[in-house]
């Protein structure tokens, strides 16, 4: 390559441009998988990295949680072994764009199916029904949504949780929006916010972490219905159909139930029964 002739500064610019292309338009052709149906190729799957019990990157670099188990099962049915999966972090606000760009083949990241999101992406599922709730300090007297008006509340940019606060739950709360829930939990612990709101499945996982044990409580409110779907690129009906078949098999061969026990059991999270494919609880 002619690279040696260019200055260090322009080489850096060139490297950036190459990197941007690599995670952008050039991936559009394969939409997150380097060969359809497995073989020796890789599949890129979007998950959360900071949500214990759902999608967590552990210190040793491995991944755990219900979304990870569901995604691994689905990838298996699409013809990919666990060793062929490349996990990509897809934060709440990045999910639609990651699919549109083709950064990932699909997303399993506590991703609620909504009419608004369906304008931009397609969904398989649902595969779990969760509910929006509040996490507060053990001695807090916040116990219902309206108690939040005037209080400092944390949620995540691009989530239904933040949207619902504005729309219905507590329009007068001082809502701080971070890019991930782990940042909200740290803010709750150090007193920067009075409460954190998102799905009960997520909050239960944080509350049960060793470093937070005994410090927080869930309000136990079902403030919304969050139907978790697997997001795919808009128009990729073939993949939606394959994923729906995989999710149906995961429930009928009991793998779904096994994953629920393994991933939610430690936090004591009482999940809803397996949803029916295509049935959204409003
Ligand atoms: N399930 C909700 C959503 O899709 C909240 C959790 C999240 O931000 O991933 O927005």
Concise structural overview:
The protein is an alpha/beta fold and 282 residues long.
Name the helicity range: 25-40%
Average pLDDT rating: 90
H/E element order: HEEEEHEHEHEEEHEHEHEEHH
How many whole angstroms does the radius of gyration measure? 20 Å
The kinds of small molecule bound in this structure are: glutamic acid
Domain module tally = 2
Which residues sit in consecutive blocks of at least 5 with pLDDT less than 50?
A: 1-30
CATH superfamily assignment of the largest domain?
A: Periplasmic binding protein-like II
- Spatial arrangement of strands, main beta sheet: 5-1-6-13-7
The CATH architecture name of the largest domain reads: 3-Layer(aba) Sandwich
Largest sheet: 5 strands, mixed
Reported by name, the CATH topology of the largest domain is D-Maltodextrin-Binding Protein, domain 2
Assigned CATH class of the largest domain: Alpha Beta
Total strands:
13
């Amino acid at each position: 390559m002619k690279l040696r002739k260019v200055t260090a500064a322009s080489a850096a610019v060139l490297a950036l441009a190459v990197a941007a292309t690599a995670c952008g338009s050039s991936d559009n052709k394969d939409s997150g998988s380097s060969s359809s149906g497995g073989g020796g190729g890789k599949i890129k799957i979007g998950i959360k990295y900071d949500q214990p019990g759902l999608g967590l990157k552990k210190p040793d670099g491995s991944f755990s949680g219900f979304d990870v188990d569901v995604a691994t099962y689905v990838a298996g049915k699409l013809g990919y072994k666990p060793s062929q999966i490349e996990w990509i972090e897809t934060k709440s606000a990045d999910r639609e764009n990651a699919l549109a760009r083709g950064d990932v083949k699909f997303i399993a990241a506590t991703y609620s199916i909504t009419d608004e999101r369906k304008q931009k992406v397609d969904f398989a599922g649902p595969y779990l029904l969760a509910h929006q709730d509040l996490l507060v300090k053990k001695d807090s007297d916040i116990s219902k949504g309206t108690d939040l008006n005037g209080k400092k509340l944390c949620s995540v940019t691009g989530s239904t949780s933040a949207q619902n606060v504005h729309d219905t739950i507590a329009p007068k709360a001082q809502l701080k929006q971070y890019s991930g829930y782990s940042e909200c939990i740290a803010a709750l612990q150090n007193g920067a916010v009075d409460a954190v709101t998102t799905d009960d499945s997520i909050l239960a996982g944080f509350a049960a972490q060793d470093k937070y044990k005994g410090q927080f409580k869930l309000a136990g409110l079902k403030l919304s219905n969050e139907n978790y779907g697997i997001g795919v690129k808009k128009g990729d009906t073939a993949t939606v159909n394959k994923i729906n078949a995989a999710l149906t098999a995961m429930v009928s061969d009991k793998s779904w139930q096994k994953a629920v026990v393994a991933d939610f059991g430690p936090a004591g999270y009482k999940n809803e029964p397996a949803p029916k494919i295509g049935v959204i609880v409003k």
